[in-house]
Amino acid sequence: MTTIDYRLIDSTLRDGSHAISHQYYAEDVIRIVKGLDAAGVQVIEIAHGDGLGGSSFNYGFSAVPEKELIAAACDVTDQAKIACLLLPGIGIVDDLREVGALGVKVARIATHCTEADISEQHIKAAKELGMEAIGFLMMAHMNSPEGLVEQALLMQSYGADTLYIADSAGAMTTEDVRRRVNALVSALEIPVGVHAHNNLSMAVANSIAAYEEGAVNLDGTSAGLGAGAGNCPTEILAAVSTKYGINTGVDPLKLMDLAEEIVRPMMPRQQVIDRAGLILGYAGVYGSFLLHSQRAAERYGVSQAEILLELGRRKVVGGQEDMIIDVALELARKHAEQEV
Amino acid sequence: MRCAIIGSGNIGTDLMIKMLRSEVLELVALVGIDPQSDGLARARSLGVQGPHEGPQWVLDHASEIDMIFDATSAYVHVRHYKQYAEAGIVAVDLTPAARGPKVIAAVNLEEHLNSPNINMVTCGGQATTPMVYAVRRAIETLPYAEMVSTIASKSAGPGTRQNIDEFTKTTSQALREIGGAETSKAIIVLNPAEPPIMMRNTVFAALPEGSDHSAVIESIYAMEKTVQSYVPGYHLKNRPVIEAGPFKTPGGDVPHRAVVLLEVEGAGDYLPAYAGNLDIMTAAAMKVGEAVAASRVSEARL
Fold first, then answer.
1. A313 lies in a domain?
2. A199 and A248 in one domain?
3. B145 min Cα distance to partner chain A (Å)
4. Gap between the Cα atoms of B148 and B181, Å rounded
5. Would residue A280 count as lying in a domain?
6. What ipTM is given for this predicted complex?
7. Is A26 left (phi over 0), alpha (psi -120 to 50) or beta?
């Protein structure tokens, strides 16, 4: 068996959940997990888009309880490990315990890129449950390389086995990614990973750049299904990696079949970089605000672009979806005042 | 009543400044564990004792103290709450340890005044439970309620950060037990923006078929006034709205939801105005402490 150059974590069933408003059913999960598993993907992440416990008014209710979906995934996976995501403040340690019992082997514990110290309870709990714990710093464009190192060292000290940065707003240039990954790889004892989004059409390029700087974990989703303009498409990442001579251990053709024949037909909209998606990357706004802001714009008769730009100005972070309604109401009020 | 505050972090120090203005509560000491802490230095400069021997100091001085306000962390409170009760000291617990009955100042202030241990839930719980209750009293049943609390990173001390699960669990319980929701969820988000953001709280409430929407809105406005009577910086940031679904909540499918967008501006007693989370907690604890004192006085007269 040849060794692989980086490990691929597919998040179609977690980040992809945003793009279908968390309406996954068990049969979808089974087909996607089987496809990813057969293609050789090493880790498959499943949860509500906002992590375990994310089903809510604020983020959208899941059609099917996520733990039922996770149980279905654990049942059908052959070689791939099943992972979950948890955001402290939304999910709790009890959730980790429950999914641990279902067979989840990897827990990604995600915080905003300056708030790593809220993850201590959860990283330690994941380790106690025998899981691999991955520290996951979101909205990484909002912190400097040095600042990220400081936060990453905290997660490493809690026992994290791997450290990820997420470009949750799809706002980073290749240079931004290189500087951050380089700093992390030099400072940490644990492996580094990158989770990219495509709002600025940089996801695949940024992932390859991250690999060149020493990242040995990369994220993708099938057909790019995910928050904002979408994620790094797993099948494209695999194909491009092959062209670069990078050994991924996955079969790009099987991933293309999965994306084309199973995932695309279930997508309510294809992942394109339209104005709203581009603004997310341009203004540095959390990708999962896309569909919520579209609904608020329709409901209150204001522009989605204006909502997103104002959210960027307010420096809201992941999880503050309630502020979309707040901004929409304020814009509607201002417009009404101007008309009088 | 003679009082001690345990914990010289953000909450304890803010509470000290409020208590020094009280005509009912006499502050004996602010008790910490770090002799170098800013809070203890502040106490000494205000003429208040600032011992650093932690909970043990209180137990050693039990005859001089009638009531403690615990502003440490849930773990510390759990370790010592029985000792306070055995020493005959009333404990007002500002951690999310939830050992005693929960009190939300605007809703059930009078219910547990004789309890040896009173739990103040969480800052987010003090801010949002009144609004959940306000919706609940205007309709027949409230199948599901949810709160999202966003606080400035700078106003979240190490206690809050290490206790984040306790925060969400205790707050969620309060939405049911005191707010009156059948099912519930609580979410907390930390925002590091500079300058720091004001504390924001959002309440979502599931409205079943046939709910009187204007009664809901009226009840929300009335509750805003009630909370403002002891937290002047508490206000609706935008008008409360009713949004059409349908929504598939854990308490069942409902056609509408109420959305209540709140902001809490702090009084700036210790940390600046953005730290409304401290203010609502310490203002509520003062309200409870003074109510306990008043009930003891009236008992003594009987």
1. yes
2. yes
3. 9
4. 15
5. no
6. 0.95
7. alpha
User: Which is catalytic among the residues B123, B127, B138, B220?
Assistant: B123
Catalytic residue chosen out of the listed positions A18, A112, A195, A197: A18
Q: Are residues A236 and A332 in the same domain?
A: no
Q: A268 CA to chain B: closest CA distance, Å? A: 19
Domains B2-121+281-301 and B123-274 share a fold: no
Number of domains present in the structure of chain A:
2
State how far residue B188 is from chain A, nearest Cα, in angstroms: 5
Boundaries of every domain in chain B: 2-121+281-301, 123-274
What is the CATH topology of the domain spanning B123-274? Dihydrodipicolinate Reductase; domain 2 (3.30.360)
Cβ of A114 within 8 Å of Cβ of B192? The answer is yes
| CATH top-level class of B2-121+281-301 | alpha beta
| Residues A31-78 pLDDT 10s | 999 999 999 999 999 999 999 999 999 999 999 999 999 999 999 999
Residues in chain A within 8 Å Cβ distance of B250: 55
Helix B213-228 vs helix B123-138: angle between axes, to the nearest 10 degrees?
A: 140
Q: Residue A326: which of B169, B188, B237 has the nearest Cβ?
A: B237
pLDDT tens, residue by residue, A3-15: 899 999 999 999 9
Residues of B in contact with A114 (CB under 8 A): 153, 192
What range does the domain containing A308 cover?
Answer: 288-339
DSSP state of A91: B
Q: Could you give the C-alpha distances from B149 to A316, A327, B4, B128, B179, in angstroms and in order?
A: 13, 16, 29, 9, 16
Q: Could you tell me whether strands B241-249 and B252-264 are parallel, antiparallel, or unpaired per DSSP bridges?
A: antiparallel
